[in-house]
Amino acid sequence: MEFVAIKRDRVLAWLADNVPAPRIKHILGVEQMAASLALHYHLDVEKAATSGLMHDLAKYFKPSVLLQMAQEEGLDIDPVDEENPHLLHADVSAIVARDKFGIFDEEILQAIQDHTLGRPGMSNLSCIVFLADSLEPGRGDTRELEALRQAAWENLYKAVWLVCDYSLKYLLDTRCLIHPRTIRTRNWALQMASKKQQSAEEMMKSKKVGS
């Protein structure tokens, strides 16, 4: 635990030098919500907190730096990424977590990578960091956000799908480019939520028949 505390202090010190104070407040909110969701869903709380704390390491890197680091890493770069390199900050944050802070746990690195656009087939850890990034308390307290937060505690796949819909609506309203991975994530989460619902209904039917 002492090692974890020391590493967290190092990350916080680095963030203080590289990220504005309001963004650090958001990062801490994501760290806390990810840890709480992990506890709720019986996942590794330390991994969730670490992923949340490091998810925005590259948030304020220059677009040219984001593109260069992504290219050097050999990442797939979509035309939407080229138009808006900021979308690469999640992938580059994972690179910084690995190279600067010695994070080699693939599940943590993947959760950091997935926190903005999601990814079809992503792990439950990735799901909760994705949700925490959009829903931590600092994001606001509108009725819609509160409903999404409630969904996050009830069904991870449904919450991911609904958060994707929430993001897509904003992107459509503001006439922004939409990354294809967001759409693929939304469709995957909707399918998974539907399968889970169908499985639950079938289980209920079988219980009724057996009673």
From TrEMBL:
<keyword id="KW-0408">Iron</keyword>
<keyword id="KW-0547">Nucleotide-binding</keyword>
<dbReference type="GO" id="GO:0008803">
    <property type="term" value="F:bis(5'-nucleosyl)-tetraphosphatase (symmetrical) activity"/>
</dbReference>
<keyword id="KW-0479">Metal-binding</keyword>
<feature type="domain" description="HD">
    <location>
        <begin position="23"/>
        <end position="138"/>
    </location>
</feature>
<dbReference type="InterPro" id="IPR003607">
    <property type="entry name" value="HD/PDEase_dom"/>
</dbReference>
<protein>
    <recommendedName>
        <fullName>bis(5'-nucleosyl)-tetraphosphatase (symmetrical)</fullName>
        <ecNumber>3.6.1.41</ecNumber>
    </recommendedName>
</protein>
<dbReference type="Pfam" id="PF01966">
    <property type="entry name" value="HD"/>
</dbReference>
<keyword id="KW-0378">Hydrolase</keyword>
<dbReference type="InterPro" id="IPR005249">
    <property type="entry name" value="YqeK"/>
</dbReference>
<dbReference type="InterPro" id="IPR006674">
    <property type="entry name" value="HD_domain"/>
</dbReference>
<dbReference type="InterPro" id="IPR051094">
    <property type="entry name" value="Diverse_Catalytic_Enzymes"/>
</dbReference>
